[in-house]
Each structure stands twice: as structure tokens, then as C-alpha cells.
Amino acid sequence: MSLTIAIPKGRLGTQAIQMFKAGGIGESIDEKSRKLVFKDEDINISFILLKNSDVITYIENGIADIGISGKDMIMEKGADIFELYQMNIGRCKMSVAGIKGKKVFKDDTIMRVATKFPEITKKYFDSRGQRINIIKLNGSIELAPILGLSDVIVDIVETGNTLKANGLEVFEDMYHISAMMISNRISYKFKRKEIKKIVELIRGEDEDGQDN
Amino acid sequence: MKFLNIEDEMKYFQKMFVLRREIEDFLFEEGYINIEPSIFEGYDEFIEINSRINKKSTVKVLDNNSEILILTPDITTGIVNKFLPRWEYGQKLKIFYYGKTYKHNGTGIKENREMGVEIIGEKNSNTDQYILSAARRIISRYSDEYLLEIGNSKFLKGIMQSCSFNKENYDNVMELLYSKNRQELKEYLSGLPFRDVMSTLLNILDLEGTFDEIMEQLDGLYLNDLMKQGIEELRQIDNEMKNTDHRVSYDLSMVSELSYYDGIILRGYIKGSNKEIIRGGRYDSFTKQYGQNIPAIGFKVELDELIKVLYKEEQK
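YS: structure for the whole thing
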């Protein structure tokens, strides 16, 4: 039975491809080529390389059966997919950050939060009963508090170096984020055994990776 | 579906009409009576019954007393609300309907055509079987590559009763089960008590596949009476279905967006389609809020999804 796997381009994808190859599949993938579709003919598995934020869309619509996506994207989209395995790559945190040492929690004004993740941000502050104004940005989030666009930011923090370089610090960690293996809900029903095999393969590679 | 030219759109309407009529003819001949569902529901009543539904997705309207109504997201709820308050002892209903449901889907209001079947007021060993067989006969008419998936909400309910979670814990666990997120479920449960029960809850995501596969996985796990009852009901169904059909699988972790199911839950899929074609189940306890526990079971066919399958088949 044929299977299509969606892989995000970029560092996460490179790591994932290494894991697939170490597990003996994905021989056909050549990251240096500009091709976006590869196929292991012998085992009938196709790999498609996509922009990381599009992986979920391809899976939700059943074009790809399974794929790899950051948990941040899954939460932001409220994706209706199965989250089959939390991988050991792409680990980081989603955090609230602001200008170092600056008090932002004033009583009399509503806090302004700049972020690429408005849905996650809204849900998080809603659950705490805190009213905020969300400012949706698409990049260079760190600039927002510096230039006075917002009081704080909500963003992915990996090492904290970018924050530091811009004179910001983490005020609060919100969620742990990592890469997830996800699958289309209907594909899973028809191809459960094949899909589980791939998940097991990645799990095996993950555990090997931890031993080293 | 949207069409550039009128001719294609006419073909579509024609096709939809034929599809509707085929299913309606089948149900009519099986002795079901056609009813016309209402499109309005009371917002508060609906949310109270269906707590897992996304409130934002409901389409609200105001009546002239400023009461909030919604355009129905689920027709079965409306049918129960319509008939149960006037229910007479011993009454039996075998009904089918065609109707539309409404939801906000982020970009606008989504209308969804569906055809539904309900049997209310009758329960014997054959009723479940009868409904399952009707579902199978409808779906198998439109594709050879279909799959019927059967679960039983009593199993999960049994676990949840033993855990006595508060509402927040309950909702979170349900959400994690719905997305089959094993690791986060494990992490979440590790912070909660009730050790025995947890062994089953942690392994519940493995309880899928053929009935025999599930029985193997169940070995050594915690089971209470309600859970056992759920499994027994599935065993009976499996005994019957085995002889007639191999395209049946079971999933004990099945979570439905509509929380009124109380027993058998049914899903029907067709390969190549991207949504459930058939959804349904038993909802006896739903009727209890009207003072009587009336047995009820039914399912609906997603016509918009089914017609997409027919278009795909045609292109092959």
C-alpha cells in the first residue's frame, strides 16, 4: 500500500531525513537536488518536501498520510489530525519575553503582546483570565518591545541568544515544543499498520540517538 | 462544491438528487418514516448537552425575544428535543431525515447536507445489528473500499467513572485521546492519582484493530463492570458481523465530538475521502433528561462528502 510522508524543509527536515535514512527508508531523497518529491519505488513510499507551515495543510487534506510538524504549528492551527509521536528533535519552548528588567504588568492598562502565534497566545492568557491586546507579526518579533509596538512578545525560544542579543529576557515559559509525527485521521484508519511501522522506525532512531 | 459554469452545477444537483433518492428509497422500503427536521436550536440547551462542541463554531441568531438560537450543528439533538417531551410509554419510532447542519469554519458559514436514520424506543438484541447493517448496506453501495469502525463509549465512560476526574481533567484527557497523543497523555496522567485505572487509560490507544487483537491487548488491564459490558456488546456485534463482513474494525478509544453517545459508536470511511462518511451511535442516556430512559440509536450519512467520492470514482 502506498504511503506519502510530508517533511518540512529546513533544519528539522534534515534531521528527520537523517533519521529515516538511518532506519533504512528515504534512500531516494536527495536534499541537494531542487526536486520536492521523491519516491522509494521498492517500498512504495513517497516523500514530499514542504514549507514547515504547510505540512499540516497537506496532511489535513489527505494529500500526505503522515508527516513531521512542530507542535507550535499544530497548536496554532488547532489541527484536526492524530499526533502519533513526539519526536526528540526540534525541542524548544514557547515563552513570554520582554525588555530585561522592565516591569510590564501594569494594573491600569491592557498588556500588548506581539506574536506569530495569536491563537496560542489568546488561549494561554484567556485561561489565566488576563485581558491582552494581540499584535500579529510575521517575523523579527524581538523588535516589537524594543520599538514600543508591544509590552511583551510570545515566541519560540531555543537558546535564548536572540533574545539576549536584543536586550530581552524570558519572563515566563508557556509550553514545551518539539517535532511531532502526525497523520491524517482517515489515512490512519486504512493504513494503520504501515503508519505504525514508520512511527516505530522513528521511535527506534530517537532512542538510539539518546543512547549516544 | 463550487462550479464555474451552470451546466456543471446542474449535473451536480442532478447527482445529489439521485444520491438522496437512492438512500431515501432504501430507507423507505426498510420501513423508516421520513420527517423534516427544524434548523433552529436553543443555544444554551444545545451547549449543555454537547459540551465538547466548539462553541465558537455555532451559528447564532436572535429571535424577537432576544433569545439566542443556533442553526443546528447536529440534527439528532433537535429530533430528541422535539419528540421526547411528548413521549408516550411503549412508543416506537423508525425515522429518517434529510437536512442541513451549519458551522462557522473560519472563513464563513459551512452548510453540510446529511441524511440520518434513528430508531427510538426499541431495543433488543437485533436493533444494534439492524442499524449497523443499514449503515453497511448504504456505504457499500458507493464503494468497495470502505471501512466500518465500531467503538463503545461505555468502555471510556467506565474508566472515567473510576477516575472521577474534574471537568478540566476530563476534557484534557478526552482531547489527548482524540488526537491519539500517547506521550502527552502519559505525561498528563503521571500527575494524577488512580493508579490501577491508569494502566488501562495509558494503553487504551492500543485497543484498536480487529476484535481479537483488542482482546489480546486487554489482557491484564483494569476493567470495571461498565467497561466489561462495553466489550461484551462489541463481542456480540463481532460474532454477527464476522460472517458477513471483514471490513470492520474496532476502536475502544473512540471519542466523539458529540458527547451524548452511550454504547455503540459507529463510523464509516471510504478510502480516498478525507472525512467520515457515516457517523452515529447509541444515545439512550441522552433521552434521560426528559425523565425517561428511552433507547435510541442512529447514524447519519455525510452527503457532501459522499458525493465527492462519487466524483472521484467517475474520474478514475
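YS: worth flagging: The CA atoms of residues 156 and 253 of chain B lie 7 Å apart.
IM: good catch. Also Residues 141-282 of chain B form a domain with the BirA Bifunctional Protein; domain 2 fold (CATH 3.30.930.10).
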